[in-house]
Amino acid sequence: MSPLSGRRPGARPVPAALAVVAAVLAGAVACSGGPGHRTAGSPTSAGSGGAGLRWGPCPAADAVTGGAGPVRRDPRQQCTTVHVPLDYHSPDGRRLTVEVSRIRSGAPRPKSLMTGQGGPGGSGLDLPSQNESALPARVTRTTDLYGLDYRGIGHSSPLHCGIAPADRTAAAGLPYPAADGTIDANAAWAKRVAGACAQHAGQALPFFNTVSIARDINRIRIALGLRTLSYTGTSYGTYVGQVYATLFPATSGRVLLDSTVPPGGVEAAIQNKGRGVEDAFGGFARWAAGRDSTYHLGGTPPDVRRTVLSTARDLNATPLPLMTGKSLTGNQLLEAEQALLDQRANFPGLAELLGAAHAGSVPADVTSKLQFGSVFPDNFFSAQDAIVCNDSSWPKEVAGYRRAVARSAARFPLTAGSPANIWPCAFWPVTGSEHPPKPVPRGPHNILMAQNTADPSTPLSEARRTLRAFGDRAAMVTVEATGHGVAMSKGCAADAVADFLLGEGPARSRHCPATR
Prior knowledge:
globular
């Protein structure tokens, strides 16, 4: 599972994202050439209007992108290929291909907005289509929307580590400790995954990182012949946006960050999920307490919390047999809870699961969702781990992770120590070619952050750290809501976002009250 696989509320569902939720409830690098559906020009000069790029049908959405299988793409979307350096410090060396998509607005003088994927790990080619329904209509009527598969992902020179299928299940992707709290199995998994990448990824491995992704987006801007290229991203996509705005302050246009990762990137975001889940669980507990006659989790929020934690303890001591022949531990229950807290629309399903587990009998319709063994494509996990591990230097000592997991579990019991657990990064065989720069307050006032007050994946407290780091460059719209990804298609947040992206005034901080 991607650590930060965000999707804006209102966007049409992404097969990869749906598969991730279901599952939790449940080689070589091609460095040249394109996907074969057409060729594209080389991005060599600004001001060309993108004339050197040849647009055509987008490649099929298939398993390489992390999807559940072939799906029908929006027929309005067009795609092209941009060639970029593997190593920007050796621009005349090996090349990668980056697949780019677009949906044109039809406006006579359109604005241009690049949309960045969360995760990392999944394809971003369908983001233009998905964001049409998620962004304010006032924006999409006059803006050409672009998307891309980040380097190493999907149809952009995909990275393959040859990770064993058993090591790329959704349950493995967010490493929860064993039922007894130990992490020996997690450490063994992390070592196997890192070893697979060391054996199969090749010499290109260090160059799959967020700095290079941000440089790719600027190279796309040049290929399109644009003076500036605005950007929006959700979750991990906000980290790409931070780096893009920091490296290219004069040409990054307007940068909208939705559900913002802290300045330390994905590593810091993972470590702060304990705080985020606690924040979001409060909203769920209030919701469930008001429906105690239906779900029987408790009549007050503290009662709901006690029910969930006591059920998890009981299942860790005695796992619950399921109709599938597998069993459900308490930590697996908490892992499913973490995934479902991402969207308020999941609350009924989450309450049903928790209530059934508390009662000691999970019915067939709920059991069918517990597909812990669902396997994700090798490219999904390979690219995810490469980007996350190349971006920062993770601790190496397994004993240190054991201590950190115990401390985290004591402080944030709803996540059982998972945010502090070991990743393949502890055994990563290479050092990333570039670590991302920290945000700085120097530059134009061109960043707007949008943030829910109770976000399980990117908590408000960490978004505020990013806001402080950018200083006068940024403003923040806070929305009184629970979930990961701000609803911005209408209402208070939509007005603020549209005014900002359309250039109708500087970014301004404001608070949007809860909506019914």
